[in-house]
Design a protein that fits this description.
Number of strands: 3
Length: 153
């Protein structure tokens, strides 16, 4: 029963081969469409060759190239992740150093500072201040306007 299923699968793949063809259809309006089914009657049909099967040597070389590219991509990802982790570690160390320095500075400031309390609100100066009277401005007398001589001819 199992062998029969394999032969049916192989037969299906062989019959599906022509169905994998690609057609280039050019419509009457000049529009180009690529499809896997035959084109409409009013369009021009051109069959497009698909990729030819590779030889075992070419297939093995392509597989090696793909594996090498995958290894290179994984190495690049690992290097980028390591660099990002190093940047994060340096950033956290800098922040910790800044925090330690600010705490040390605050402790030094607390040791060397003197406390000055503001005067209480209920304290009043003694003796109470006297209001200052502004001095009156002297009044100037009005003087008659000077009359200049009118020039006669």
């Amino acid at each position: 029963m199992e062998g029969r299923r394999i032969w049916v699968g192989v037969l299906g793949l062989l019959l599906a081969g022509p169905a994998l063809a690609v057609f280039k259809c050019t419509g009457s309006d000049g529009r180009v469409t690529y499809t896997d089914v035959p084109c409409a009657a009013d369009s021009r049909v051109q069959a497009v060759d698909g990729a030819h099967p590779l030889s075992p040597r070419d297939e093995a070389a392509a597989r090696r190239r793909g594996e090498r590219l995958l290894d290179d991509a994984q190495a690049l990802d690992a290097r980028r992740n390591a660099e990002a982790a190093e940047r994060q570690r340096r950033w956290e160390a800098e922040r910790q150093a800044e925090l330690t320095q600010s705490r040390e500075q605050a402790r030094e400031d607390a040791e060397h500072s003197t406390v000055v309390y503001p005067a209480p609100l209920y304290a009043r100066p003694w003796p109470p201040p006297r209001p200052v009277q502004p001095k009156p401005k002297p009044v100037q007398k009005e003087r008659p306007a000077r009359m200049n001589a009118y020039p006669f001819r």
